[in-house]
């Protein structure tokens, strides 16, 4: 083995690391350009209201079942775990306080975003990825239309509108799921359960949680559109883009949740 071999391997490793860093910077720049183009398309005339309404139905209405099931069982599990933990200290009557506050501030918005991101992010990436690899996006450009305004903008607006509504419904159903467990498992009166939530979880807590979902919706739709429009390699590439969209959207939601929570707590 040559004495220079370890040096060459180190140089190759540094080169690969540099290539990945440059690729990451380039992707961030492309994403920022797409976000700016989407904002610009929203300010131009002929806003695509009909397509937005169609996407609200596809993104919001069709995600209702999975969001409601997630919220219901999250509330039930949270009440069950909290009840057993508080029972050790003789404070099981205050299960409602923990359930309501947790759902309003964190669990409701984040779990709703993750469920919608998994379903909708994959669908958007697959749809736009298929259009990209079959050159339908190029056909839209050749006809003089703007693919961003026609394809990206309606999905982003629909996600931003739909996610807060889904979160509000999820919060309510999660509280009802906790009420079911509190009443049947711990014999806590329903009126007392709801009163503890009313006294602990304020309107500010509810609004802080719902306000996050506007950002979550934008992240999910923008990431899915960005990944879908960059898909290459035929059907295999579309499959890879779908996976990347779900992973990237989920990570983006969790990172954004941390910084938004810090910001809201500082206000």
Task: Summarize this structure as a short list of keywords or feature phrases.
2 domains, 267 residues, 0% strand, single chain, 9 helices, mainly alpha
Distance between the termini: 62 Å
How many beta-strand elements? 0
Cα radius of gyration in angstroms: 23 Å
Poorly predicted runs of 5 or more residues: none
Strand content of the residues, in percent? under 5%
Overall geometric form: globular
Structural write-up:
The protein has 267 residues and is mainly alpha-helical. It has two domains: 1-43; 49-266, no CATH class. The chain contains nine helices and no strands. The longest helix is centred in the first third of the chain and has 39 residues, at 5-43. It is globular.
């Amino acid at each position: 083995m040559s004495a220079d071999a370890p040096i060459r391997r180190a140089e190759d490793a540094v080169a690969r690391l540099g290539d990945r860093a440059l690729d990451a910077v380039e992707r961030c720049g492309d994403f920022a350009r797409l976000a700016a183009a989407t904002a610009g398309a929203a300010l131009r005339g002929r806003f695509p209201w009909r397509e937005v309404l169609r996407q609200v139905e596809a993104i919001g209405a069709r995600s209702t079942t999975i969001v409601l099931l997630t919220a219901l069982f999250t509330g039930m599990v949270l009440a069950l775990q909290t009840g057993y933990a508080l029972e050790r200290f003789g404070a099981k009557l205050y299960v409602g306080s923990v359930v309501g506050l947790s759902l309003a501030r964190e669990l409701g918005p984040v779990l709703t975003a993750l469920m919608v991101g998994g379903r909708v992010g994959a669908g958007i990436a697959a749809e736009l990825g298929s259009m990209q690899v079959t050159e339908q996006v190029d056909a839209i450009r050749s006809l003089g239309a703007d693919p961003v305004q026609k394809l990206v903008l309606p999905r982003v607006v629909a996600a931003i509108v739909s996610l807060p509504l889904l979160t509000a419904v999820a919060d309510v159903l999660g509280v009802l799921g906790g009420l079911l467990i509190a009443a049947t498992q711990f014999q806590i009166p329903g009126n007392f359960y709801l009163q503890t939530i009313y006294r602990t979880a304020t309107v500010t807590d509810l609004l802080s949680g719902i306000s996050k979902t506007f950002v979550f919706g934008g992240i999910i739709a923008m990431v899915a559109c960005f990944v879908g429009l960059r898909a290459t390699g035929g059907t295999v590439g579309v499959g890879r883009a779908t996976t990347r969209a779900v992973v990237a959207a989920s990570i983006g939601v969790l990172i954004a949740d941390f910084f938004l929570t810090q910001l809201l707590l500082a206000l």
